[in-house]
Specification:
single chain, 308 residues, alpha/beta, UDP-galactose 4-epimerase, domain 1, 2 domains, 9 helices
Amino acid sequence: MKKVLVTGGTVFVSMNVAKYFAGNGYDVYVLNRGNLPQLENVTHIKADRTELTDELDDYIFDIILDVNAYNEEDVKLLLEHVKGFEDYILISSSAVYPETNAMPFTEDQTVGPNTFWNTYGTDKIAAEQYLLSKVPDAYILRPPYLCGAGNNVYREAFVFECAINDRPFFIPGDGNLKLQFFDVEDLCRFMELLLTKQPKNEVDYTASPLIYNVGNTAAISVNDWVKMCYSIVGKTPELISVDDSHFIRSYFPFANYEYSLDIKKQQELMPTLKPLEQSLTESYQWFRDNEDKVSKRPYLEYINNNLQ
């Protein structure tokens, strides 16, 4: 039974990663501050990764699944304190690609500042580069927007809430803005495929870093995404267009930024993905029982004061 260290383990992505690997026969350890309820069938290591001292001294792991590294220092501290491992997977972000790059973004493109993501993207770049300087055979995943069960980010949850309360939905412009998603369970499945298939043993990783864009094969328009979310609740939305005199992030959970990822490398390892409607349905089922766990933003307040 391989020992797996998951950074985090209590919220959305890291929680799903820990649950998935624990349910698939791995000996899972989660590293977090202990401020939230812990999963069953995992071992909790109570520590703040930004203030590590000797909390990891007694452990040697086979696998590190680094879900919540946001900058170079996060990776540096973890590598300085962990005693050993065979495989390291870092969850990075598609925010590392400048919006000026040709689309779809490919893994071999230059990374750099993106004006829509600001320091989030540049900090992720620094985390990637530091990791590869120390662990050149590490795997790096760059997802788009993640969705699925446990999503505490106020995205589809906001649409579900509007649908439940029979509210019209305010969309930016004509609603044709395209969004690319990836189901969190598919992310977990792909991580396990990397660990079982070990593509690093088949390529010259010193010349070609093991970086993978991950995501659904096709994007979806805002109009169709909102309609799908309402349909899952059993409703049909009244869509109301909002002109560009209103700042989109005041009333809508995504930036006015359209991009796409080339996911051919992912498809070679994992050709079959969960349909988006199924992913959103699982997100809704979780939301119905866990609305209090969603990090809500004041979209409705802005809508009530400015758009009604």
